[in-house]
Design brief:
111 residues; alpha+beta; Beta-Lactamase
Length: 111
């Protein structure tokens, strides 16, 4: 059974996403660092171009992919050391999707 994402730790991720002083790339980098420190899960956020997933943000170290999850049509996550259940990933993805929908204009900017 996977570890549970507590509301407090999810709140930390939500606060990171709402931080207006960071770009979307900086926010995703911070989330990857948070997940690595708290859960030993490595996340690489990718932009999706058809079948190709290109690194966008996250850890700069090499990841051995165990799981690949779509966030939306443009972004996905490659995950190493996947210790979470599907429901737990959905909780995180819902926060990301909600943020990306609210800030959709950011997705069209050059990073």
């Amino acid at each position: 059974m996977g570890k549970e994402i507590s509301l407090f730790k999810t709140k930390a991720i939500e606060e990171c996403l709402k931080n207006q002083s960071f770009s979307i790339k900086q926010k995703l980098n911070q989330i990857a660092i948070l997940m690595r420190k708290q859960y030993q899960v490595k996340i690489d956020f990718c932009q999706i171009f058809g079948n190709r997933w290109s690194h966008f943000a996250g850890l700069t170290e090499t990841i051995i992919p165990e799981n690949r999850i779509h966030i939306n049509e443009q972004f996905g996550m490659i995950i190493e050391n996947d210790v979470f259940t599907q429901a737990q990933w959905l909780e995180l993805i819902e926060l990301l999707v909600q943020y990306l929908k609210i800030n959709n204009r950011i997705l069209n900017d050059k990073f």
